[in-house]
Every structure is written in C-alpha cells, then in structure tokens.
Amino acid sequence: MGGPGRQRPSVGSEGGCGRARRAAGVAGRAGLLISVGSCGLMSACAHYGKTEGEALESRVYALETRLEAVQADLTELRELQSNQGEQLDAIAKDVGTLNMAARRNDADFGVQLDELLQDVARLKGTTATLESRVSSLESSTTQAQEELDLKLEDLEKRRDGERSEAEAGRRRESLLQDPDRALDEARKLIDGGEPERARKLVRALMLEYEKDRGFAERFEPRAQFLVGETYFEAGQFQQAAAEFNQVRKAYPGSVVVPTAYLRLGQCFERLNLIEDAKLFYKTVLKQFPRAPAARQARARLKEIGA
Considering the entire predicted model, what is its pTM? Predict the structure, then answer.
C-alpha cells in the first residue's frame, strides 16, 4: 500500500512496543509531509510561474499519495496493536487460569500423595499385623504338632504296652499250664530286675492251683519262697521277711527252707537287727550244716563278728 518500489516490513516480525513506536514515527512523518507540502504549495503560488507551479503541484500530489499510504499503514498498525493487546490479555488470562489449575493440580496431587502415603502406612500396618498373626499361627501350629506327636507317641506306647500285656497275658496263660516252667520264668524275671512281674506270675500260678493238692506238695513251697525273693530284690526287707517266715512255718520239710532261713538273716541284717540276724544264720549252721546256704551263713557270721 506504500509508494512505488517501497516494501512494507512484516508487521508480525516486531514486538508490540516496536510497532507502537513505528506507528508514532509514521504519524510524525505524515504530519511533517503535510506541513512541508502546504508551505511548498503556498511558496510556489507566491514565487513560481505556471510551469514551476505545475511541477510543484505534481510533487504535492505525490506527497499526498505517500501520505495516504502512510496513514493506511498507521491504521493497520494500530489495529494490529489493538489485536495484539487483546491477544496478550487473553494469554495473560490463560496463564492465570493455568497457574490456578496448576495450583489446584498441585493441591490435588498433594492430597492424592497424602492419601497414598496413608494407604501405604495402613498396608504396612496390615502387613505387620498379618506377619504377627502368621508367626502366632506358626507357633501355635508347631506347639499343636509337638503335642500331637507326644500324644501319638504316648498312644503308640500304650498300644505297644497293650500288645505287650496281651502277649504277656497269653504267655502267662501258657506258663500257668506248666507250673515248673512258670516258676523258672519267675526266677528269670527276678534276676533280670523285674520283681513285680515275677510276683504277679507267681501269685497267678498259686491262685490257679490253690485247691490242687499236687501243686501244693510239689510247687507251693518254691512259689512262696519266690514271692519272698521278689520283695527282697525290691528292697522291701520287712515284707520279704514275712514271706520267708511263711515258708519256714508252712513247709518245714521243703528243700527251700535252709535258704529261707538265710534270707531271714539277711533281711534282719539289712533292717539293722544284727542280733536277730545272727540267730537265723546260726540256725542254718545248726539245722542244715550241709546245705549250700550254710556256707553263706557262716560267711555272714564271720563278717558281722559273731
């Protein structure tokens, strides 16, 4: 829109302040041109002839044409400046909105972060509680397993014991059918440190044949002596002395009587009744000098100083 050969600079390449300065400069130049043109025209009218006046008129026309172009540029620049001001206001408004949104987003993010941290803390607490419960359950399970193992072991022992007792019962029933073998078994039990089992076997045998005269004559003195032996082996010397005395009184002619007297002396010696013990040892030597028990009685008398 300028004069011939003149190129307008690109408006979009300058800032808002540059455009304002340019607009002001254009307006100044436009005023200057008008003033110059008017003065020139007036001077030309006053001092120049027709030819010179026509030339001057052509120059004034050119200046007016250039002035119109400058005014058009100025108008365009002002419109552009106004538009850019509105755009700047819109941008500022958008920036403010973005700032507020950012602050809201930051606040929302902070709230979400706090909630997340609280959730994590709750999860940690729940995890700790679960670990504690798991540990407690593991401990309870271990204890229960140990108790179960003990109960199973005890049950197994009871079953073994019941089987053993059942087997012993069957064996005892078998032994009771043979008194001589039963009494030999009782002797083995006594020597093996099981006097109670031996006593039960002998008592059962005596009960089984309590009305059998043949048993009374052949086996009862020996059975009674073995009962005394079970108490003697168990350290129950007073009870043992009572059983041995029963042998002496009830079966005076039995082959076990000399040994019963010897055992009586040993029982009284263990009970610290030394004089009574000497009496029984001397009885063995006097009444049964050739019995195997006599040699032991003599050794005991020598030991205790008779």
Answer: 0.47
